[in-house]
């Protein structure tokens, strides 16, 4: 991967995060009667905040993505290919179970139904992303894509779950999922060598 390709990926991911964050913020602003704005300046400030959060979520997603790439490189170097795939599957299942029961066991709170819904949403998005990735590349991309989309996304959102507000959790999860899916789906195009 060249610096020019990485720079292009960086800006594209920033744009994805910002657009998805603004769209999510607009949809969530209509929840519970909507947000009351006092004037045009309130609208501008609200959109700037949404855009800024999208950029931050994108950068956070990119940190997770490059951490995953390093972990995947090391895992492939230390373990056999089949062994590393089994390890990724076990870690993916453990991360999903962690998310389903995180607030119940750690915080002693009754957030089990919303955690279960969040787990199902992440699982469905991960499966759809893995299907597209396997179609675009090959079947061996299935397990690493699931591991990234489930395991890394859950690691990225664990801090946000402590807020314990469903709208805030959705506002955190949706841009991260979009950025993660974008990056893993475009990775093979970014790293492929150009034919002369």
UniProtKB/TrEMBL annotation:
* A Pfam family matched in the record: KbaA
The GO annotation for biological process reads: positive regulation of sporulation resulting in formation of a cellular spore
Q: Which domain of life is it from?
A: Bacteria
This protein's UniProt keywords? Membrane, Transmembrane, Transmembrane helix
Segments spanning the bilayer are 45-71, 83-104, 116-134, 141-161, 167-187
Protein name (Swiss-Prot/TrEMBL) = KinB signaling pathway activation protein
Native source species = Paenibacillus crassostreae
Organism ancestry = Bacteria, Bacillati, Bacillota, Bacilli, Bacillales
């Amino acid at each position: 991967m060249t610096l020019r390709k990485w720079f292009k990926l960086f800006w594209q991911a920033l744009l994805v995060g910002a657009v998805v964050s603004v769209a999510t913020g607009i949809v969530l602003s209509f929840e519970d009667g909507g947000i009351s704005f006092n004037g045009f300046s309130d609208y501008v400030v609200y959109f700037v905040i949404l855009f800024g959060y999208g950029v931050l979520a994108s950068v956070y997603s990119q940190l997770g993505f490059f951490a995953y790439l390093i972990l995947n490189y090391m895992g492939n170097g230390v373990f056999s290919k089949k062994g590393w795939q089994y390890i990724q599957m076990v870690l993916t299942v453990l991360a999903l179970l962690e998310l389903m029961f995180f607030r119940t066991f750690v915080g002693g709170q009754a957030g089990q139904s919303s955690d279960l819904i969040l787990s199902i949403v992440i699982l469905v998005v991960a499966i759809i992303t893995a299907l597209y990735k396997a179609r675009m590349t090959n079947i061996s991309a299935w397990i690493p894509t699931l591991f990234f989309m489930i395991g890394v996304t859950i690691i990225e959102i664990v801090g946000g779950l402590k807020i314990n507000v469903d709208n805030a959790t959705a506002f955190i999860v949706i841009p991260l999922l979009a950025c993660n899916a974008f990056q893993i789906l475009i990775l093979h195009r970014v790293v492929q060598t150009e034919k002369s």
